[in-house]
Amino acid sequence: MAIDHVSGAENFRVVNSLISSANIEVIPLRGADEKLAALPADTTVTITCSPKFGLERTLDHVAMARKAGYRVVPHLAARQVVDQAHLQEFVGRITGLGVDDLYVIGGDADEPVGIYDSAAQLLADLAGMNHSLTRIGIACYPEGHSKISDSELLDSLIEKQQYADYMVSQLCFEADALTGWLKRVRSQGITLPLRIGLAAPLSTRKLVELSLRIGVGTSIRYLTKQRGVVGNLLLGGSYRPEDLLLGIDPELLSDETNIEGIHLFSFNQIDATVAWQRRITASG
User: Fold this and answer.
1) Which of 24, 52, 107, 253 has minimal Cβ neighbours within 10 Å of its Cβ?
2) What mean pLDDT comes out for the span 253-279?
3) Is the domain defined by 5-283 classed in CATH 3.40.50.10490?
4) Is the pTM of this model over 0.90?
5) Confidence class of residue 284 from pLDDT cuts 50, 70 and 90?
């Protein structure tokens, strides 16, 4: 769809608003709590989990971020949860800290530690528990998954959406791929609002260093499958996160039932992420 002057200006206004209010993902590494000080007080912080660090590390950083005054969305990987009692304990601890939003994923562990092999299984049990959570998020994959077919991903998304309030896309660097996928799943009955998973401005050197600390699968793996992105960065090119957003069909971008917000993968480069947000906001 061609964007005329008026609709283009409106698109930029919407993009500006989405960027300024984005959730920022933080990996619970040592020193991450100190980096939070760069974030505005009204920022929503999401805290990841991984099999390398375990759920206790996630919980520790959730507590630190809440103590600092931020709204927090913990990630919970189903494959790291032992059983229903463990799930109830985790939920009780985060809600006790004032958390009301939880993002549930299957997780990267090769083998589950307990009874949950998928996010759908955990979500079904969570739905039967008493808790004070008011929002549940789930993952979606606009550019597919290396181990799961597109048809299986769609079936899983349909199954999970009955338990969820929104979905968060894994990293995507092409507006056409994201827009095409969103239109397809909408036609297949997926109605959940989308939070676009967007990589914040990247320092390639820092990203490589971080990938070595957290293990393959959380950063470099996503980037290496993106056509031309890593090569462009390594050759000194620039990556502008806003370009993907500005390339989205304006009708989809302005409809809150389609896109409710942005999930920024900061890779703990929080200073650079906040500086970029402020630069975009100032330019609006």
Assistant:
1) 52
2) 88
3) no
4) no
5) low
